């Protein structure tokens, strides 16, 4: 299978599985517990049908949107995800360049493997920094100031990782960051010589935003679940979020909102955006899918804050359904991570091109020329 044969999410996933050692593939691919929520994040879109209109003159469509003050050329951006140089040696550099080429936003994680400073040089387009609230207050201050100095446009505080989810695939495979060298992991690396060569002979693996502050996960191998459970501050409250919002003083979002009550509180503390998300089904299994919860959140706060639907997006039709319900835009991680693992920057560009092509085609088939024409009138729930 080659990159040119990748026409959809499943194709990229299959190619990534061939390119990656087992523990690393399953880290991307897995969820929490029985992975019920992970699966539901995508199948939720099957519960709603699109009702198209015809004869609307759709030769030219405009799929641009403004989200949290940022003009995007399409209503999809690359959600922040950790550890990207584990998946491909180009890591965040590849995603930054691809997102910039397609005129969309790139989210950079606190647990990134490339610095915000370098990303700022690589990607002149809109950039979001995803903030984890650590016990180490010095680290928290450093993260915010580095993002500010690098002229990042949006700050997003992740609020659904107060402890690590039960990611049983990682427990079975022994996945850690950095990878722990064991007989089984070495065997998996040897079976994927291209990945192993780039990882072992290239730039030393690091999470540079954390270096000098913590050893766990940077020099001392740990699972992501253990990192969340031991390094992040479980005492975080709404007062802390409000203080961070004021400290940032610009476009500020909460990532991981799933209830109407919390959405209203986000508005009250001054947020300009919320990401309706369950962390890709990697935290609380049995939690509702973002798309299932989207309507009541949009009804409650959609006129006061930009609502982003995040999780399970695999098709252009998924995006149009979320926008029809009331989301301002959507974001996703796995939809570009598998493409990154499959072929680096070229893979991410092809994934974004596929999605842009689908959005444009599906808008025309729906009979709309701009996203504001989408509404719940175009939907029927089964």
Q: Could you explain how this protein is built, in words?
A:
Strands 4-5-6-7-8-9-10-11 form an 8-stranded parallel beta barrel, surrounded by 8 helices. Strands 1-12 form a two-stranded antiparallel ribbon. A two-stranded antiparallel ribbon has the order 2-3. It is α/β, with parallel strands linked by helices and 382 residues long. The chain has a single domain, classed as TIM Barrel (Alpha-Beta Barrel), CATH 3.20.20.70. Helix content is 44%, strand content 14%. The chain has helices spanning 9-19, 22-29, 36-43, 84-87, 91-101, 116-122, 137-149, 168-173, 183-190, 193-201, 224-231, 238-248, 260-268, 290-301, 316-325, 334-366; strands at 48-50, 65-67, 70-72, 76-81, 106-109, 127-131, 154-158, 251-257, 273-276, 306-310, 329-332, 379-381. The protein starts with 8 loop residues before the first helix and ends with a strand.
CATH topology: TIM Barrel
- The CATH class, by name, is Alpha Beta
Ends apart, CA distance between termini: 37 Å
Mean pLDDT: 95
Largest sheet: 8 strands, parallel, barrel
**Rounded radius of gyration (Å):** 20 Å
* Multimer state: single chain
Structural class: alpha/beta
Q: What is the helix/strand order? A: HHHEEEEHHEHEHEHHHHHEHEHEHEHE
**CATH architecture name:** Alpha-Beta Barrel
Strands, total number: 12
Quick structural summary:
The chain has a single domain, classed as TIM Barrel.
């Amino acid at each position: 299978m080659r990159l040119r044969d990748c026409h959809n999410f499943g194709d990229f996933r299959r190619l990534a599985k061939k390119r990656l050692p087992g523990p690393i593939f399953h880290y991307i691919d897995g969820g929490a517990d029985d992975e019920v929520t992970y699966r539901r994040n995508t199948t939720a879109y099957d519960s709603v049908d699109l009702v198209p209109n015809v004869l609307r003159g759709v030769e030219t469509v405009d799929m641009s949107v403004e989200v949290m003050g940022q003009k995007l050329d399409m209503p999809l951006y690359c959600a922040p995800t950790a550890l990207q140089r584990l998946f491909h040696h180009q890591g965040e550099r590849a995603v930054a360049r691809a997102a910039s080429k397609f005129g969309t936003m790139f989210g950079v994680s606190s647990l990134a493997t490339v610095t915000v400073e370098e990303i700022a040089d690589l990607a002149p387009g809109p950039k979001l920094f995803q903030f984890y609230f650590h016990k180490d207050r010095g680290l928290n201050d450093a993260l915010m100031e580095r993002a500010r100095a690098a002229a990042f446009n949006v700050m997003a505080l992740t609020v659904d990782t107060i402890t690590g989810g039960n990611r049983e695939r990682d427990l079975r495979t022994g996945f850690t960051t950095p990878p722990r060298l064991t007989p089984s992991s070495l065997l998996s690396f040897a079976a994927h010589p291209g990945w192993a060569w780039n990882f072992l002979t290239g730039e030393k693996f690091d999470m540079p935003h954390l270096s000098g502050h913590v050893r766990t996960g940077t020099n001392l191998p740990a699972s992501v679940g253990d990192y969340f459970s031991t390094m992040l501050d479980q005492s975080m409250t709404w007062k802390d979020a409000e203080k961070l919002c004021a400290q940032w003083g610009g476009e500020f979002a909460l990532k991981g909102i799933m209830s109407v009550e919390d959405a209203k509180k986000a508005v009250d503390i001054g947020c300009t955006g919320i990401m309706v998300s369950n962390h890709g089904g990697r935290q609380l299994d049995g939690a509702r899918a973002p798309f299932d919860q989207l309507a009541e959140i949009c009804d409650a706060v959609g006129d006061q804050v930009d609502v982003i639907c995040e999780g399970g997006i695999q098709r252009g039709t998924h995006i149009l359904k979320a926008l029809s319900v009331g989301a301002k835009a959507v974001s996703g991680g796995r939809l570009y991570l598998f493409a990154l693992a499959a072929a680096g920057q070229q893979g991410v560009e092809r994934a974004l091109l596929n999605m842009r092509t689908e959005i444009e085609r599906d808008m025309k088939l729906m009979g709309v020329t701009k996203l504001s024409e989408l509404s719940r009138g175009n939907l029927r729930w089964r």
